[in-house]
Design a protein that fits this description.
The protein is mainly alpha-helical. The protein is 69% helix and 0% strand.
Length: 443
């Protein structure tokens, strides 16, 4: 059945991408997160190429409708410009790289990621599609978390600590980076949505995602998830319902986090002389990345190439041919230069800062806006905390939170987000919206 369902979903995605490209963007991310080539690997060919089919269908649909779609807000245009500038600088760095083949692989992936993100910012232009995007992200990511949890309970071990996961063969740290932005959306849904099936569905997804971080033993992801939780608590509307939900989630996490998980997480904060080899090597890797940036500040060494330079820059040397930097900032800076790093960070920081400045209105505007705001404000910092221990430049989901932020800002620029008055969070669904009706979520 998996073969027919997935092929049917891909065909539907291609048709929809041509006729309704905004929905096609959402389906692209949903199928990318669901990863059919991995989760249904016994039923599909090894390389079905479904992403390319949907991408080219989406490009065709965008070409047919782009002129009739209203352009995004000024922040959205700046975000697109930053992302495309990063893409251009990565290409320029690739041209002068000594390892041309590795850079070719990087460019073959990053250009699709960048163009789909740019198209999504341009094409997704209403509240209904924003809500669809949030739900699609939660469902697609939660299915993977469910499979990892199921595998653990069936076998008693977590294979993905030592083995790579997914069709892209991500290790435990990079898979955790894939999940972090989606967990932020799930947490935002718990604290922002009002319909019970959405709230409890997002709560179940966030619980599965939190437990899988413990199972795959990614200390960086555990730390990032803690940052995510603290920021979500800080920004959420302080209603009785949200306080009850966060208390329930805290109990779930406390029950799931057994002594081995606590021990593993605590080891990240051990004194220098007590750090294990993995934690200790991070400091040497970061030092190597900093020196690499200092030697190649403008063009970098080339995309996907820094791993070949690390043994040269690593203090004391390494007895291996390559080693990844395991840090997003140093990796992007070393591979595309300081201009590439600034462009990459601009794509994330510009929308984040704009949402942060308007957070009070957005949190009080409505369930979808509230969920999206909490996701952006808690997820973007958490993603960069997790990226201190790995890099997700070739993972689609890592580019989604700026898309969500830009759609939110677009709704505001087009007058879709009204100035809030005052209403209790719980009675939003029952209160009519008129001149004297209080607004969502404000105290």
């Amino acid at each position: 059945m998996g073969h027919y369902v997935i092929i049917g979903l891909i065909v539907a995605g291609c048709v929809t991408a041509v006729t309704r490209p905004a929905v096609g963007c959402i389906l692209f991310y949903f199928i990318a997160l669901l990863d059919p080539a991995w989760n249904w690997r016994w039923a599909l060919p090894p390389d079905p190429g479904y992403q390319k089919w949907i991408f080219f269908s989406l490009a065709a649909g965008a070409a047919l409708t782009l002129g009739r779609v209203r352009p995004p807000s000024g922040v959205g245009r700046w975000a697109i410009a930053s992302l495309l500038l990063f893409l251009a600088l990565a290409w320029a760095s690739w041209q002068q790289s000594a390892y041309h083949f590795e850079g070719a692989y990087y460019m073959s992936v990053i250009w699709k990621i960048a163009l789909v993100a740019a198209l999504s910012i341009w094409l997704i232009d209403d509240r209904k599609h924003l809500k669809m995007l949030l739900i699609a992200c939660v469902v697609g990511s939660a299915y993977n978390a469910y499979q990892i949890n199921l595998d653990y309970f069936e076998t008693g071990v977590t294979r993905w600590i030592m083995r790579n996961w997914g069709s892209s063969q991500l290790d435990n740290n990079t898979y955790s980076l894939l999940t972090l932005p989606m967990m932020a959306i799930a947490v935002g849904g718990v604290l922002g949505f009002q319909k019970k099936y959405l709230v409890y569905g997002c709560l179940a997804a966030a619980t599965l995602q939190a437990h899988q971080f413990m199972l795959v033993e990614s200390r960086g992801a555990m730390l990032a998830a803690l940052v995510l939780a603290v920021l979500a608590l800080w920004f959420m509307p302080k209603t009785k319902r949200n306080i009850r939900l966060t208390a329930t989630a805290a109990v779930f996490v406390a029950v799931l986090a057994g002594p081995p998980v606590v021990k593993e997480f605590s080891s990240a904060f051990a004194p220098t002389e007590e750090l294990d080899s993995s934690a200790e090597s991070r400091f040497y890797l970061w030092s190597a990345g900093a020196r690499m940036i200092a030697d190649y500040p403008f063009t970098g060494v080339g995309p996907y190439v820094s791993r070949y330079y690390v043994p040269i820059y690593y203090e004391g040397g390494l007895d291996r041919k390559m080693k990844a930097l395991h840090n997003l900032i140093f990796e992007v800076g070393a591979e595309t230069g300081i201009p590439g790093l600034i462009a990459y960070l601009g794509y994330f920081f510009i929308p984040f800062w704009a949402v942060y400045k308007n957070r009070r209105r957005y949190l009080a505007a409505g369930p979808t806006e509230c969920a999206a705001t909490i996701a952006v404000l808690s997820g973007a910092p958490a993603y960069f905390v997790g990226s201190m221990f790995s890099a997700g430049t070739l993972i689609e989901s890592c580019y989604l939170l700026p898309v969500v932020a830009c759609v939110l800002l677009r709704l505001d620029a087009e007058g879709e987000i009204e100035e809030p008055l005052a209403i209790e969070h719980e009675v939003y669904e029952q209160a009519p919206r008129h001149a004297h009706a209080p607004a969502y979520g404000a105290r």
